[in-house]
Here is the input.
Amino acid sequence: MTASDEYQAACVQFDVAAGDVAANVVSMQSGIEEAVAAGARLCVLPELWSTSFLSEFDDATFTAVQEADATLCELSKEHSLVVVGSSVEQDGDKVYNTARVFQRGEELASYRKIHLFSPNVEHRHHEGGFEPCIVDTELGRLGVLICYDIRFPELPRHCFYEGVEVLVVPGQWPEARSQHWRTLLRARAIENELFVIGCNRTGQEESLRTGEAVSFPGDGRVIDPTGEILVTGNGDAGAVTALIELRKVRTMRRILPVASDLRPEVYRELFNRVHDKIVAGTREHQKRESVDERT
Here is the structure.
């Protein structure tokens, strides 16, 4: 597949209404139309754009979400777009936070969020995925993460090893930790010499853990492989667009040849030293969570 070397990309940010799929579809359509008017060919939506985070699900919700994804897919066909956004996915008795990649009316790939955000008890309502998502599109090789995933450098590094040029990150990242969002997105762009597109939501929503209101700044942003922030959003709904120039990826990887200067034999030894500690730490955390749930 031959990729376009230059194109406009957009973060389509809006206030995601918890459980109101119809309202969120209207917001999505408005944002997509605004992005298209600005010339966008790649659009990234917020995390769980059609429902936000819910503690309970029913058949009507899953049906509405499937119809919402179908509408998004149809818009990708109508406007010749690549679009990415996550939504709930039912698989048997399990529910996943799943990002889908649509291109011109076709689903190219899907990604089940690997790192669930335990501080907001996401792990009590969703199952974690196991496989990264790397997909070739007409706009280049994309890697897909979802929100909390960006805190774990192993996944974006895997994308770097696999030649990803653009990393897309649907998110629901709160204002209280907005500096982390901005710093982590930029760091991932610099260390992996690729574009990063992070789309965050706007508005407020109650925390599933505490019931307190959480504010979201809607600071979607596009960052190039040098770490330059090309565009940032604010608290308003709408499309935030910037020019993607894939030649910048090739240029940075030539000027700073990180890939050829790696020391995998050293990293393997270091990982082996701490592997058991990592496993023990995650098991201890899971044990504490299990006790908390029973109490």
Observations:
- Helices lie at 21-37, 59-78, 154-161, 178-192, 247-255, 264-294.
- The radius of gyration is 19 Å.
- The CA atoms of residues 169 and 198 lie 5 Å apart.
